[in-house]
Structures are given as structure tokens and as C-alpha cells.
Amino acid sequence: MNRRIGRSGAVGGVMKRHIGLSITLRLGYQGLFTRVIPAAVRLAWLGFFLAFANTPVFAQDSLPNDLAAKIDDIARDALAKSGVPSASIAVVRGGKLVYAKAYGDARLEPRTPATPAMRYSLGSISKEFTAAVILMLQQHGKLSLDDRVAKFFPELTDADQITIRQLLSHTSGYQDFWPQDYLFPMMKHPTTPALIMDTWGKKPLDFAPGTQWQYSNTNYTIAGAIVQKLTGEAPFEFLQQHVFSELGIRDAFNSNLHALPATDARGYSRYALGPLRPSQKEGVNWVYGAGELAMTAGDLAKWDLAMIDNTLLQPASWREMETDVLLNDGLACGYGLGVFVGDMDGHRMISHDGEVEGFTAGNYVFPDDQMAVVVLTNQDAVGTSGVIAKSIARALFDVHDPAANEALAQARMIFVGLQHGRIDRSLFTANANSYFDAIGLGDYQSSLGALGEPQAFKIRAARKRGGMQMRAYSVVFPKMELHIVTYALPDGKLEQYMVSSAD
């Protein structure tokens, strides 16, 4: 799993070690909780918070009980199967934060149950924020996405040929300084953005600018350095002053400079299938600009709400961020500016995964559906955060169906009728009735009749499609399982009722 700070690939671009452009030591922003309250007092309060470790946090609306229970099952099952210590989850639905809950143990020694108030490292999800800073600077006329890198760092390889847009979209050709899924010796010591750029930004390009897409943390070290050169503020400092304050994020932490304190989650790693071991922290400035942020799942959801509502940035800037960048030959690369651009089950999805030592994270936003899922976990080199996030997203797409019980009874009645070669044609549209011709009814009867009464008949999913209500059912027999998919018009008539093998 190529986990470096913003990795790409099967885990959805989770490059674990986000390149860290150097952040000045004056930064010191570690969140209001860390800055104002002494460590001893915070540790005393931890006992109070742990009493609510498994208590979900809601804002205004909440999820239906059955959907909340399904999320619980998804999270607990994934943690049990993977052995990942904990997960912190936030859900946005209908344009509101509706659910935030933590599962498992944030720290193993001493055992400390995870709570929604604990922060986790975001890894490469930080790239979304660095790209947003660049877009804000463009809005204020400080730079253009089409400016050449040479305007800021002329000494870098082919800097007069590479644009800021190509940095942010990973189409520059600069070689990634951290493709490994472990800390190589150099990374255990402090560095500077200048040293990273001198070492990797002056190498020959991996490809001509704009001809390929290849994830590279080096791009975001350079982008962060551009921010600092223009503003005098390191990326985190700029975010603290101009982004987090606008979004109501008051507890973001700069994990580029320091490991998370004892009141937050601890990161863990494994060698093969061995025991969980505390992860070693990257040296200062390796994740600068590329993977430095740590925050709660609920705070990251505030960022997602800004994306959904087109606040903070101008709508045109959000469009630039979320637009698939084209290569020179016209092919789309699947990446915008700091985000992956794609879809899930036909729903437009803006996403990024993240990974740094000890942590993996997933942030999946569905702007057109006013929905987002955040999953933060405290083990590296695993895809559990993505598995949980995608499973929750699909559960959210399964629309709460108030007519489910009535529809279930009807579906079962129709099934029994088909086992005997008959249907009530008044329940179906003309199209569906044409499907159930003499041959069709005969095959349904001959193939289903001998199965007898099912052991279970239950609904699997429900969602809207094509102006109709789709419902999917499972029909369980001793030696097999069948699936049924129905489509109902607003007047209740069935446009489809099809039975197939579950295999």
C-alpha cells in the first residue's frame, strides 16, 4: 500500500507521508485545548471524556436508528477483521453534520477508548487544504494557477515549463520523495522544504510536464513553499488565520512539528502480521504542506460542508478544485487540485485518502447529494478507513424507505405467485406485464416452484433511480440465496420484478 502522505492507487490516493514544507517554529498552533489548558488538567479531563467514549455526537438532525445501527455494525466489523485499534467517524447528510462517533481504542497502553473529541493525523487529506490556500491566493490576485514555478523557484528542474496547476494535480513530473510505506533513515531527522526541493526538485523529471499523472509529495512541498514565500506564513499558519477560523475549526493540530498529545489518538504500525507497535514520528518538516494536519472527524466534516455549500472559496475556485485535470493528450487523470475526482455508484465523489506514520484516513464528499463521510483510523499501511467510508456511503445511498414493510409483504406475495406460475397483472405496468409473457412465467414456475418456502425474505437496499423507487431483496433457501430487484413508479405500480441467483 503506497501510503505516503498522499498516496495514490487502490486506497484512493492515500500517500501517507505528506511532504512537509518547513513550518516556522513560531507557528505553535496546537488547538485551543492544547494551547490554553495545562497538560495535567487535560489529562484529568480525559477521564470525564472517556465516560462518553461510545456516545455519538449529533448536530441538529440525526440519522434514523436503523442507519446508525448499520454504521455501528460496519465500523465494528471492519475493526474486528483488520485489527486496527480505533476509528473516528463523522457523517454529513442533507448538508448537516448528523453523526460523529468513535470506536475502539485510541491508545493501547494505557488502554484509552477513542472518543469523537480526539484528533487523528489526516495525512494526505491535508493536500485539499494546501490546494485551497493556493486558490485563495489566486482569488486575491497574488498568483495564478498558470504561473510557472520559475516565478518562485527558478532553480528547480524545468521550472519555466511547469505550472502551479501541474503541481497541485500531480502532473508536473517532479519525483516523489516519499513513495515508501516506511520511514527511511533520512526521514527520522528534521529537514527543511528547501532541502527537499534541492534534493528531489532538481532531479530530472520522471516525465514531461502534463504528459502523465503520478502522485508526488514533492509537488506539495513546492506548493507549500510558494505559499510561505508569498505570505510569510507557513501553510498551517495561513490555514489557522484564514481558513480554520472561518469554518469554526478551533482545535486543528500541526503534526508536522509535534506528535499528538496524550489526550489524542496514538498511531500504530505492524510488521507483517505481528503485534501493533507505536509508530515512530517523521522528522520535522517532512510532511509540511503535504500531510501535516491533525483534527477530529467532526472538524474535517466542517471542511466538507464548505465544499458542499460552496462557502469559504468562491464557487469558481471550488469548480477548479473539483474539475478533472486533462493531460496534454486530452485524457482525464482522475484528479483535480488536491482531490480525486470520480464517482461511486453513479454519485459524483470528491475524495482523498491520507496516511502518515501510524494513521490512515478517508474523506469522501458527495456534493450533489449533500453528503460526506469521514473516517480516521490509528494504524498505517491498511485500507480500513476506505473500506469503512465506502461501506457507510453505500448505506447512506440506500434511502430510508417508509413503505419498506408494505413493499416487502407485496414482494413476497408476488414471489409465491410466481412459484405457481401466476401474477396479479394489476400490480404491474404494461412494460412489466410484457416481460412476464408465457415463456417467462413458465420458467419462473419451473425454476422456483421446487424451492418451497424460503427461510428468510428480507430487504437489502432501497434507493431512487430513474424517477422510481428501487428495492432489492434477499430470498434465502437451505442451499441457495436469490436476489430480487424491483422498481416502483410513484403510483405504486411495478415497472420491474426480476429474480436472479445471488452468486
Total tally of structural domains: 2
Our estimate of the beta-strand percent is 15-25%
Uncertain spans: 6-55
- Spell the H/E element sequence: HHHEEEEHHHHHEEEEHHEEEEHHHHEEEE
Strand order of the largest sheet: 3-2-1-12-11-10-9
Percent helix, as a range, is 25-40%
Distance linking N and C termini: 29 Å
CATH class of the largest domain, named Alpha Beta
Q: How many beta-strand segments?
A: 16
| Overall pLDDT level | 88
Rg computed from alpha carbons, rounded to a whole number of angstroms: 26 Å
Sheet having the most strands: 7 strands, antiparallel
CATH level-four homologous superfamily name of the largest domain: DD-peptidase/beta-lactamase superfamily
CATH architecture descriptor of the largest domain: 3-Layer(aba) Sandwich
CATH topology of the largest domain: Beta-lactamase
Give the topology:
Blueprint lengths: L31 H5 L2 H12 L14 H18 L3 E8 L2 E13 L2 E3 L6 E2 L4 H14 L24 H5 L24 H8 L16 H15 L3 H13 L5 E2 L13 E2 L7 E2 L14 E3 L1 H13 L5 H8 L17 E5 L2 E10 L2 E8 L4 E7 L6 H14 L6 H16 L10 H6 L2 H11 L7 E10 L2 E10 L2 E9 L5 E8 L2
Antiparallel strand pairs: 1-2, 1-12, 2-3, 4-8, 5-8, 6-7, 9-10, 10-11, 11-12, 13-14, 14-15, 15-16
Account of the protein in words:
The protein is α+β, with helices and mostly antiparallel strands. It has 2 domains: 32-142 and 165-397, DD-peptidase/beta-lactamase superfamily (Beta-lactamase, 3-Layer(aba) Sandwich); 404-501, Nuclear Transport Factor 2, Chain: A (Roll). It has helices at residues 32-36, 39-50, 65-82, 126-139, 164-168, 193-200, 217-231, 235-247, 297-309, 315-322, 384-397, 404-419, 430-435, 438-448; strands at 86-93, 96-108, 111-113, 120-121, 253-254, 268-269, 277-278, 293-295, 340-344, 347-356, 359-366, 371-377, 456-465, 468-477, 480-488, 494-501. The strands form 4 sheets. The protein has a 7-stranded antiparallel beta sheet with strand order 3-2-1-12-11-10-9, sandwiched between helices. Strands 13-14-15-16 form a 4-stranded antiparallel beta sheet. Strands 4-8-5 form a 3-stranded antiparallel beta sheet, covered by helices on one side. Helix 3 (65-82) runs antiparallel to helix 11 (384-397), helix 4 (126-139) crosses helix 7 and helix 6 (193-200) crosses helix 7 (217-231). Residues 6-55 have low confidence and may be disordered.
